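Hi support team,

I've been running sequence recovery on a batch of backbones for a student project. Most finish fine, but this one hangs at about 90% for roughly twenty minutes before it completes. I'm not sure whether the input is malformed or the queue is just slow. I've pasted the structure tokens below so you can try to reproduce it. Let me know if you need the job ID as well.

Thanks,
M.K.
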């Protein structure tokens, strides 16, 4: 459990002078503990983000949506903001509906989150694509119940910048709803999230750290998206411990 502490974590300047960093893949999984078809997708994402890759960084974010809470089990990690984000993606994909489990990869592809063969094909394509934007994490400070992030870019294009705190190794005994009697395992669950317009100038983002979040099992994820298409242009991840 996260305790109220005060310390400074300084990563300094991450040098992105040229767009030559290795390819990256951002997985946004929309899931719910109230959905009986979601556990296989949760396991697939945990598997692919835990693998070691030579030439690509795979970063996962598990967004728990709240629209399954009504059937008997309230997902403790669900947030209406995440449901709204999924609805925004639906509009980008010209879809009239949202569903779980859904994987959105690099803001460009969407598919049923447990579809391993679909993931494998997309991975092969994206693992060869280099970043087209540059993110600089200038400073990361954790004071009491906040992560204070300073970020900039050497690129002055207007983009959407997302910042998330994700927690690994979560477990939940579900006592009601479609997954009643099951113990569910989760990785890279989004515990705090903000999104904003970004023009590359030094920017400060404050993310609240939930009281029950274990900092030692958590990471900061930053990723930039094209304003119009929402395609992910660059991403980075740093552990908090």
């Amino acid at each position: 459990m996260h305790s109220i502490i005060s310390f400074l974590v300084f990563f300094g300047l991450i040098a992105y002078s040229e767009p030559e960093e290795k390819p990256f893949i951002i997985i946004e999984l929309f899931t719910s503990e109230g959905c009986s078809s979601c556990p296989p997708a949760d396991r697939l994402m945990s598997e692919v983000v835990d693998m070691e890759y030579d030439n690509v960084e795979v970063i996962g974010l598990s967004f728990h949506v709240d629209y399954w809470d009504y059937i008997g089990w309230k997902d403790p990690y669900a947030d209406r903001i995440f449901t709204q984000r999924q609805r925004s993606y639906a509009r980008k994909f010209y879809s009239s509906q949202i569903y779980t489990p859904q994987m959105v990869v690099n803001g460009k592809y969407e598919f049923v989150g447990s579809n391993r063969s679909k993931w494998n094909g997309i991975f092969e394509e994206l693992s060869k694509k280099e970043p087209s934007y540059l993110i600089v994490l200038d400073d990361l400070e954790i004071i009491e119940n906040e992560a204070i992030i300073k970020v900039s870019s050497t690129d002055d294009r207007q983009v959407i910048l997302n910042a998330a705190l994700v927690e690994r190794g979560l477990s939940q005994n579900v006592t009601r709803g479609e997954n009643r009697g099951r113990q569910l395992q989760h990785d890279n669950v989004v515990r705090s999230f903000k999104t904003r317009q970004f023009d590359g100038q030094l920017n400060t983002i404050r993310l609240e750290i939930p009281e029950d979040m274990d900092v030692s099992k958590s990471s900061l994820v930053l990723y930039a998206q094209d304003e119009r298409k929402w395609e992910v242009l660059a991403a980075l991840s740093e552990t908090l411990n």
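--
Follow-up from support: It reproduced on our side and the slowdown came from queue contention, not your input. Helices lie at 39-50, 80-92, 116-126. No action needed from you.
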